[in-house]
Amino acid sequence: MRVGLTIFCQNTGDWDRYEAEERGEDTAARPSKADAEIFREEVGLALMADTLGFDSVWTVEHHFTPYTMVTNPLQLLTYLSGVTKNVDLGSMVVVLPWHNPVRVAEDVAMLDMLLGPDRQIMCGVGRGLGRREYDGMNIDQAEARGRFDEGIEILLELLATGQCSFKGEFWQLDDLHLRPQPERDLSSQLFCAGGTSETTQVIAKHNISPLAVPTSSVELALQGARNYANLRREAGFGPVHNKLALWTYCSDDPAEVEEANGWVVDYSDTALRHYELAGTHLDNVKGYETYAKNAANVRADPEAFRKNFVRDHPLGNPDEVIAQTRYLAETFGASEIMFAFKYGNMPIERAERSLEMFAREVLPALKEIDAAPLQPEATLSAG
């Protein structure tokens, strides 16, 4: 199994100031910890992963809040391509409705060329959820479904062939050819995170490999992965491995592990606040019916959301981290797991210490895991 590290660049301690500023209250103009300092810290983690034997480094896309501050994952990954020597690079995810899919294909093709034959770029995409982000991008969130569906078709074709003709509601291309020309078919390097059945149907239909990124709990992510396996079979394709994102902390000190559990809860609180998961703003937004329904449950018990997120992630001593990761890899049918080592209000020194122990005592065992792809659920025969 491949093992990656993902960096978020969160300024978790700035949420109260940010929300006060958003409400129009008098507050400090800048956070107590500079955003630039957080970027320097987490790039440092990526550099450590490059020398400690990790297979890949991943990052995310978000805008306008302290939740995560990577506004262009492909830009950050291009920077990392120049300061690392060994790791492959991945996005989890580029939010496709916020981008011209032609530009995304160009950036992926160019980064693949710059990485050379021994390293690869893995382009994970998704549909996005945040109201503030759609508003800030001046894109109607009710158009997200159509923009994503058209964008994924265009991106897939351009990565596969380097050219595309397309006539849709949002995008029209007439025999477009990419330059620089892709040196190979990159379509197998396209992955997608599906948070709803509708998105999962689209990626299954197009034979796009899945990303399982828990946004509320590992249990719900597993339900989504199983749904994808079933839809993939219905579309006529065989089983495929998942790529799975997890949060981890590795220490022999139970008190440290307990503290890390609190930082995962910090992370879940930032997700709750960034996505406004308890809000009613999605009630009448086309394509977000599933999220609107889930929001009612979060409003009823937001504390349950925070606590459920931390469950099942591999936090503990090295043996516990290995055992739980092995279980999750086999349950999800994962061929690669991307671990978050710094999240919430965790000090960078603690993240570095956890990462070093993980690389020394956990990483070799994880690379020996060989999980089978997640199988679709068996259908009951009549009679």
Task: List the SSEs and their pairings.
Layout: E1 2-7, H1 15-22, H2 35-52, E2 56-59, H3 73-83, E3 88-95, H4 101-115, E4 121-126, H5 131-136, H6 144-161, E5 163-167, E6 172-177, E7 190-193, H7 197-205, E8 209-212, H8 218-234, E9 242-247, E10 249-250, H9 254-275, H10 289-300, H11 302-310, E11 315-316, H12 318-332, E12 334-340, H13 348-361, H14 363-367
Parallel strand pairs: 1-2, 1-12, 2-3, 3-4, 4-7, 7-8, 8-9, 9-12, 10-11
Antiparallel strand pairs: 5-6
Core attributes:
383 residues, alpha/beta, TIM Barrel, eight-stranded parallel β-barrel, two-stranded antiparallel ribbon, 47% helix, 16% strand
Structural features, described:
The protein has helices at about 15-20, 35-50, 75-85, 100-115, 130-135, 145-160, 195-205, 220-235, 255-275, 290-300, 300-310, 320-330, 350-360, 365, and strands at about 1-5, 55-60, 90-95, 120-125, 165, 170-175, 190-195, 210, 240-245, 250, 315, 335-340. The protein is an alpha/beta fold. The chain has a single domain (about 1-255, about 310-365), classed as Luciferase-like domain (TIM Barrel, Alpha-Beta Barrel). Strand 3 (about 90-95), helix 4 and strand 4 form a beta-alpha-beta unit. Helix 7 (about 195-205) crosses helix 8 (about 220-235) and helix 10 (about 290-300) packs across helix 11. The longest helix has 22 residues, at about 255-275. The mean pLDDT is about 95.
